[in-house]
Design a protein that fits this description.
The structure holds two protein chains of two kinds. Chain A is of the alpha+beta class. Chain A is built from eight helices and eleven strands. In chain B, strand 1 (113-116) and strand 2 (122-124) form a beta hairpin. Classes of the chains: A alpha+beta, B mainly alpha. At the A-B interface, strand 3, strand 4, strand 5, helix 2 and helix 3 of A face helix 3, helix 7 and strand 3 of B.
Chain lengths: 243, 325
């Protein structure tokens, strides 16, 4: 079984919002219609986005660290939003595990957005249907595109390679390796939704230097010194041995 | 959560309708067992069924205002295997159909006695339809309550008390309406319904208070640490990534002060339980339809406040991601 997903490397995300804008650009120009954008340059801009980047401060000044945190639909393996949908508009594809909404069946009751603990679903307030990240399903299988471009728009846009795309069920895939080797984790594991998207933590490379490494016990300089000599009246080796 | 008035009116109106129907069937079964005098089928049961239908239809109309695409509402019966909302969409018209048939039979006098016991108790055809209607009523209460109770991360709702409260509050409101209605169309039954209305209202007060106590002690399972997966005691959001609003900031927050929440709690406790009981008691004493109807209306207003509070109190874990602009 395939489960396509995104891996987001928080270690290298710089919070530039390139994934947000490229996602919006690609998905607002698709065949399924635009993504609402009301008053984009006005007083209270509002609209539908599949992906948003947030910023957090960890710790207390001066010991703080900034965390840029991109958040989109996590394509849960046990998605709580799917069984609650009364019409079947919300579904999880068997072949690749993408959670999708059929915009022609959706009645806009918002119940699935209540059922998503991550707030990944946003109702389009013009079209009155529920929308969410599709993992660019209209891109990743498009054979008109060169193979290197058959990836979600956000992945292609990321300048720091903080977003990786692949099959997390294939244990030999790049993304599975990253999860395994770089400490990939899921959001809100307490609800048992088993998100397919994983996050890689902030990682710091530190050189660990111990005290005894600064003061070397086997300092070669010390070998140059003369060793302490025995007192003059002490018996020599010849005195104490006889044969 | 942001309380949606469409859903508030849906749940309170159908609750009152379901309660009134249960009251009619309770009255009829007591009559069948000769515990209460029998009533006129047109004036009492027939007209009662009309009121039930009006309330149910009112609720249904209110629910359409919640939908983005009401013209596709028929699709929502499809996923009854998994979705409590879909089950409600089936249970509500089923109940409406049964109430319609019940009312029609009462008006047309299609009420053959199927069986008479040695003691003289009659089992009538309308009673059979009524019992199926009562089952549909309970099924509908269960569906309505479970829509909220099944969402496990809305911890304020994820409790059997949610279903119990929906059932008891709806039934209390229906029996209160039945008291006022009986005073007009079947005065002998007024006290019977009045006493039941008091009992159910008190029971609803106990279970609603229990859920208030439970909710005041809830410890949120999700924290900013689990939401981000960062292990640090002090994490502060600096930006949610946009400066205007979004669905996430509008739909999931109640946008009211803590003082407002506290006031609303006391308003609904007084209007749903205390004031109607006093008014009902006085109305029963005076056998005055005006006071009895006032008791129902006061409680209905209280139920609107109660439902508003029910929604506003629920704290969605997604709010963790939207704490500051």
């Amino acid at each position: 079984m395939t489960q396509l997903a995104l891996i987001i490397d928080l270690n290298v995300c710089v919070g530039c919002h390139a994934c947000v804008t490229s996602c919006k650009e690609w998905n607002t120009s698709g065949t399924s219609g635009f993504l609402t954008d009301e008053n984009p340059y006005g007083k209270d801009p509002t609209g539908t986005f599949f992906n948003r980047v947030q910023t957090y401060e960890i710790g207390e000044f001066p010991a703080t660290e900034t965390l840029h945190f991109p958040k989109s639909c996590l394509h849960c393996e046990d998605p709580p939003c799917v069984p609650v949908c009364p019409t079947g508009a919300s579904y999880k594809r068997k072949e690749d595990g993408i959670v999708l909404v059929d915009y022609d069946k959706c009645i806009g009751c918002r119940y699935c957005s209540w059922a998503c603990p991550y707030g990944a679903r946003e109702i389009d307030e013009t079209q009155k249907v529920m929308k969410k990240c599709t993992l660019c399903v209209d891109r990743i299988y498009d054979e008109e595109l060169p193979e290197s471009e058959r990836k979600p728009a956000c992945v292609l846009a990321c300048p720091t390679n903080a977003r990786l795309f692949g099959d997390v069920h294939d244990s030999e895939s790049d993304v599975s390796n990253m999860i395994r080797e770089e400490g990939g984790y899921q959001l809100m594991p307490e609800w048992g939704t088993k998100p397919a998207n994983h996050y890689l933590p902030r990682r710091k490379t530190r050189m660990r230097i111990h005290e005894d490494e600064l003061q070397r016990a086997d300092n070669p300089l010390k070998k140059e010194e003369r060793g302490p000599s025995a007192p003059v009246d002490a018996p020599t080796l010849d005195d104490s041995t006889s044969w | 959560m942001h309380p949606a008035f469409s859903v508030i009116f849906l749940t309170t109106l159908i609750g009152a309708g379901q309660g009134l129907f249960l009251a009619l069937i309770t009255g009829q079964s007591y009559s069948a067992l000769k515990l209460l005098p029998s009533q006129d089928s047109t004036d009492f049961y027939g007209m009662g069924a009309v009121i039930v239908l009006v309330l149910l239809i009112g609720g249904l109309i209110a629910s359409f205002f919640h939908l983005g695409h009401p013209e596709r509402a028929w699709r929502s019966a499809a996923m009854w295997r998994t979705s409590w909302l879909s089950r409600e969409v089936i249970a509500l018209p089923a109940l409406m159909g049964l109430v319609f048939v019940y009312g029609l039979m009462q008006f047309m006098g299609w009420d053959t006695v199927l069986f008479t016991s040695a003691a003289g108790a009659n089992l009538q055809l309308t009673m059979i339809v009524g019992i199926f209607g009562a089952l549909a009523t309970f099924a509908l209460f269960l569906c309505t309550g479970m829509i909220y109770a099944c969402l496990k991360f809305l911890q304020e709702w994820h409790s059997p008390l949610t279903v119990i409260n929906y059932t008891l509050l709806g039934t209390a409101s229906g029996f209160l309406l039945a008291t006022a209605f009986a005073n007009q169309n079947a005065p002998e039954l007024m006290r019977f319904f009045g006493i039941w209305a008091i009992i159910i209202t008190v029971a609803a007060f106990i279970t609603r208070a229990a859920s208030l106590v439970r909710n005041s002690r809830i410890k949120a399972k999700s924290t900013i640490q689990t939401a981000l997966g960062v292990r640090h005691a002090k994490i502060q959001q600096k930006t949610m990534g946009f400066m205007g609003g979004a669905v996430n900031t509008r739909d999931f927050f109640n946008h009211v002060s803590i003082t407002m929440m506290k006031n609303m709690k006391w308003i609904f406790i007084v209007l749903t339980f205390i004031a109607p009981l006093i008014t009902l008691w006085y109305g029963m004493d005076q056998a005055d339809s005006g006071w009895l109807l006032a008791a129902f209306i006061i409680q209905y207003v209280g139920l609107i406040a109660e439902r508003w509070f029910f929604f506003a109190q629920a704290n969605h874990p997604q709010n963790l991601y939207y704490q500051t602009i």
